[in-house]
Amino acid sequence: MRYIDNGQGDPRDQALFAWLRVMLTPDVVGIRWQSGYFEAGVLGLLAPTLAQLAADELDALVLIGSNDCETRVSVVHKLVDVLGLPRPGGKLGVVSYADGFFHPKTIHICYRNGREVAYVGSANLTSSGINGLNVEAGIVLDTDEGDDKGMLTAVKEAVGAWFESRPDGLYVVDAHGDVNELEQQGILTEAGAPASSGVGGGGAGVGGLARRGRRHALPTLPDSDGEEGEDGEHEGDTVDELHGDVLIAELAGPGRWSQAAFPEWFIDNFFEVQPGEDRLRLVPVTRTGVWREDRVPCGYKDSRNWYYELRMANSVGEYTNDPKPIGVFHRIAPQSCRYTIIMPNDQAYPDVSGCLADNLHRLNRPGNQLPRTIVPAQVLADAWAEDWFFDL
130: domain range? Predict the structure, then answer.
């Protein structure tokens, strides 16, 4: 039995991701978990194991909460796909109550040689829960280290018991149609969960609060094709969702470059706002520090783009059309971003523009659109020699 706690030292060292990355090997023959909150951003790590279990018709039992009915429909659809449902060994349950949260965080893994390991702790299977951003603690058990198999069996059977007893509050999902029904019942939502849901990071670097620092870059699911737009700023919508921490984008202009314009897909899937209803929390960051945050509405342009006014643009320099300024938006929580603008004469420009060019394939962008990409924060941090944006 071993205690892991990433509250001290490098937040990545004892993050749940570090344990999972080692435990998810080709020898896994069964996995079960409970997570009070769940984000599709962790599926890049889990998907290879889940796909192999589905191909071999082995057990994968999953319980996730939809507390306050805030779990996203798209997340559960992705789980149906990676679990290979419907199939006998794959089970997915969504748990939701009117007067209480589904809040356990446990993982149990079986191996071909009979080894069993388990995690019991505070970390939800969300990006911030496993990558080191949140402070999390827990116990890991391992039969290869002499831990009691009966205790590991209890962790395993606790998940299976839900599917055997089918208590009130459990909604079993066997196919995409079940997900759609849960949306119609209000158990799942199209909107993103609020920062209080365990996603974490909502106040990072604001008002003198401390920042946690570096976190693990989570692997992503395979990219999916976008649709070609009609002009240099419009992009066709897609039902697929990319999961990354940082949006890197050339800014259109010059007459209106302080308005960061994006096709609707980015508004729905990266900024996660409802135009006309929500305001995006934008925290400007410069080399010298973090500015007072803005809460800005999402505007609409005749070109079919949505935009946000960037206060920083009024003070960082004149727009040049070639090369264009680059906006960097770090999503720290739903509807919340830290951002900066890198001008062509900035010494950081070669690093940031190079990272953008190297990662354009992540959005499969046609050549006639403004360059944009979404990457995990660590990808940009590794490419950016100065790295003041993440350190402030």
Answer: 2-197
